[in-house]
Request: fold
Amino acid sequence: MPLQITCPYCQTKQLVPDDIGGHGVVCAACQKVLKISAPAAPVAKPVAAVPVAPLARTVAAATIAPAVRSGPRRPKTPWTLYIVSAAVIATMAVGISLAVFFFRPGREPSPSPQAKGDPPKAKKNADKSTAAKKPNVDPPEPDTVDDGADDLFEDCVVTRAIGEPYRDGQQTKVRLEFSCVDPQKLIKEIKVAVWTGDIGAPKAASSRPPRVRAGDSPREEIAVPLKQNRGAVEVSLPTLPKDKMYWLQPVLVHTSGKMQWLAVEPWEPIAPPLERQPATLKHQFAGGDRKVQLSSLAAVALSEEGRSKPYKFKVDLTADLDETVSSRPLEGGASSSPPLPGGASSSPPLEGGARGGGGDAILRVKYRRIQFEFARNGIPFLITERFDPALTAMSRLAASWRLDPTGTLSKPAIKLDGLDEDVRDDITEFHNRLALAMELANLEFPNRDLSPLQTWTSKRSWNKTTVEMTATYEGRRINQNRDEAFVTIRGTIKSAGFSKTGQLEGTASIDLKNGFVMRADLKAETALTVPFIGADNLSALGVLEVKMTRDAAK
Reply:
């Protein structure tokens, strides 16, 4: 520590180093040499008490490093900040871990516990609120036939047909018909379970009744009387609520008392119910152009020597037609027919004697579009592109039939003049198949008044067979702004050269105002040929499905 001395010559006070004791020093004021003795005890005062201390200033500047003074001094981080940061990071890690655990996929959330003092009503209201937000997901249907139901009715085949709904007073009813193949006589009884419910997937067969879903109406079981493996029952349909469907499920009762619920699909009528009212079913030769959609689907099986399974062929033809009724007689017999006039021409309605051929008229048809498919065992068998020339040429041709006063068609004709020989045979094959479908779909009219459920019969030649038909007038209704009569058809087909008699069944709708068949859906068991597989077409008993839709005349 510096020592403070006083010069004995000039009385000037000044500081000297503390280790100068025993040496001489020059006075800064008078320049005389002063001898400093080593003091026994420090007599110097603290440097802070010196008013002017040049040495002290020099020492203070020396204690600051020049490198540190080149920038601002960095403040020290308090240790508390490190502790807080570590706590925050730890809390976030724990939160993420809990979220991953409680909300992992597949884990159902646990219900929140009810407080000890909460009233039960509060929990009940909370449950209602939660249930309202849950989607209405139906539970899965039972699996296919289970519990040995498969073996319960082994070799049994049950076929169900749903009729057309009709009004009976204030009730809407529908007729269900059943036919059974039961070689071992295992079926003791047939019932029908009836209810309304949500639109859903078809229900599989099961040995248990289908589960009752929310929104289903009460179920009613109705017994079906059986006689010679056939039965029918009139079912009263419950009122159909909005966005619901009918379910009509057959139930088989085994001789042992066990039951099996058969497969079922939801069902809804596509047209209003029939009214059991009388109507006049009379064919009319209405003029004007009409659009017709016609389809012919033939399915036939042919056996081959040395092959255990027969070949199954399907020949499918669909056509869009333009037709009109004309009094103009056929030209050149059954071998030709003049083409239809172009444009949107129309002819007036034909009356009594204004028809060619002794009360008959001519139905002329122009083929607009034709599609052809040929398959063997479910696989396309022929390259249908090879028939494109014939189908294209046929779309420019016209055909004709003789139309008698009862509405039946006969003597089909088509003009092939000017066509290449290569396409004539194919066009003839296509035309003959469509002609058979057209003739079968045009029902013979009774031309008289009929009461509901009254029948009439007819007999005619068709496809080298004899068709005997019984038609039943079921009722009438307004459907799509047209007054129509609905008819069911049953009959037999006797084919030459075959001992088995084929069956004919189907339905037809008749335009009562204009007097023609507006829709027909028929299935016939008859002798059918398989074309294009040999020099001579092979023939066998098969099934022909015919569908026709005819628009109103313009």
User: Anything to note?
Assistant: The mean pLDDT is 78. The chain has three domains: 3-67, 149-270, 279-550. Residues 241 and 449 are 37 Å apart (CA to CA). The chain is about 15% helix and 40% strand.
